[in-house]
């Protein structure tokens, strides 16, 4: 049986911020996930995984709005249904409500926390504001400081938009000072939204960050896209679903138990069913779930099929496509060609059981 990943949204689209680019705030609001749905989900998610490792991902909206006691129940239920499996929890938050009690909970239970931050204050606060339009950067930094004080494992998720994409060096040098080596860059692609990043802006941003990283931080800072790209060069599947050969089996669970094909496809046409009526394992095996995954390759344009970097992007996320082609195509193509010589060297170093960090010395010696 093929396992599945589920992004659970216990607070549905409810959020305490009003980020000006958020696509999820427009979703119909639901009440918080009730105890029956929570127990059903946890039981079924554990049962749906064929191996000994089970991943839970909690997102939103904003999951801290559920309150910490909700997630204490999560731990109780995971212990009840765990069957001796190794269970890990990831929690994506804007950080605004993170206090010492939350930090103690995360640290004591080994949860990985993702903090959303879009750069230094002037860039972050351009879009990520409260319901009253007030800045939030200072609150996010306070949350990061608490996580560090409590020794909570965390990473940073940055939405790359039309504004902060213009400052790749400033962005990267700032983010790597915040206490974690793990960075994710997510391109904002919302058609007809002026905050969205263009393909050229995306490529310029990635190249700007990569040029610093490859000379200063290989093996020290872990940028998800760079690690995934090096993995593909080394013969492994992409780590990121947007660049994987196939979609599918990465679901979004709404607070009422409705299961959707993907976080970017929470629309009626992509609703697989409800876990109260059909078990998650059955929905995962359904013809609709399999077809959704296969459609990513079926719908590729002839241009994509013939592209020399297809193996690295696989046409990007279908949600990013316009007239069959990703709006980020030019940027990805530019980045993959730009990084190729260095990726090739790092791949060869790994193949000879040497560290890819040696590339930094080679580049700096020739500078």
Automatic annotation (TrEMBL):
A matching Pfam family: Radical_SAM
Domain of life: Bacteria
Claim: Ion transport is one of the keywords in the record: no
Keyword 4Fe-4S: yes
Lineage, broadest ranks: Bacteria, Pseudomonadati, Pseudomonadota, Gammaproteobacteria, Enterobacterales
GO molecular function, one term: 4 iron, 4 sulfur cluster binding
Protein name: Anaerobic sulfatase maturase
UniProt keyword list: 4Fe-4S, Iron, Iron-sulfur, Metal-binding, S-adenosyl-L-methionine
Annotated InterPro entries: 4Fe4S-binding_SPASM_dom, Aldolase_TIM, Anaerob_Ser_sulfatase-maturase, rSAM, rSAM_sf, SPASM_anSME, Sulphatase_maturase_rSAM
Cofactor: [4Fe-4S] cluster
PROSITE patterns (UniProt xref): RADICAL_SAM
Transmembrane feature ranges: none
Residues annotated as domain Radical SAM core: 1-215
Family, similarity comment: Belongs to the radical SAM superfamily. Anaerobic sulfatase-maturating enzyme family.
């Amino acid at each position: 049986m093929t396992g599945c990943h589920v992004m659970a949204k216990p607070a549905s689209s409810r959020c305490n911020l009003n980020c000006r680019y958020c696509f999820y705030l427009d979703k119909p609001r639901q009440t918080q996930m009730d105890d029956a749905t929570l127990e059903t989900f946890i039981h079924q998610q554990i049962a749906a995984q064929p191996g000994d490792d089970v991943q839970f991902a909690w997102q939103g909206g904003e999951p801290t709005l559920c309150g910490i006691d909700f997630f204490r129940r999560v731990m109780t239920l995971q212990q009840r249904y765990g069957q001796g499996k190794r269970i890990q929890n990831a929690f994506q938050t804007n950080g605004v409500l993170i206090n010492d009690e939350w930090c103690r909970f995360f640290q004591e239970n080994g949860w990985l926390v993702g903090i959303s931050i879009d750069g230094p204050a002037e860039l972050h606060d351009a879009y990520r504001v409260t319901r009253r339009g007030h800045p939030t950067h200072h609150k996010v930094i306070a949350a990061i400081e608490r996580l560090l004080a409590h020794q909570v494992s965390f990473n940073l998720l940055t939405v790359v938009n039309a504004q902060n994409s213009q400052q790749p060096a400033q962005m990267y040098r700032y983010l790597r000072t915040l206490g974690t080596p793990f960075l994710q860059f997510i391109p904002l692609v919302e058609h007809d939204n002026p905050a969205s990043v263009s393909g050229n802006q995306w490529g310029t941003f990635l190249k700007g960050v990569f040029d610093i990283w490859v000379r200063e931080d290989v093996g020290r800072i872990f940028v998800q896209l760079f690690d995934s790209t090096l993995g593909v060069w080394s013969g492994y599947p992409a780590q990121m679903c947007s660049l994987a050969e196939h979609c599918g089996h990465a679901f979004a669970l709404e607070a009422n138990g409705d299961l959707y094909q993907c976080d970017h496809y929470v629309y009626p046409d992509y609703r697989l069913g409800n876990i109260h009526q059909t078990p998650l394992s059955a929905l995962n095996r359904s013809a609709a779930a399999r077809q959704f995954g296969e459609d990513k390759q079926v719908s590729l344009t002839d241009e994509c099929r013939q592209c020399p970097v297809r193996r690295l992007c696989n046409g990007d996320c279908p949600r990013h496509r316009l007239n069959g082609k990703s709006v980020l195509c030019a940027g990805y193509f530019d980045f993959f060609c730009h990084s190729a010589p260095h990726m090739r060297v790092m791949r060869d170093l790994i193949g000879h059981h040497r560290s890819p960090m040696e590339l930094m010395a080679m580049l700096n010696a020739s500078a």
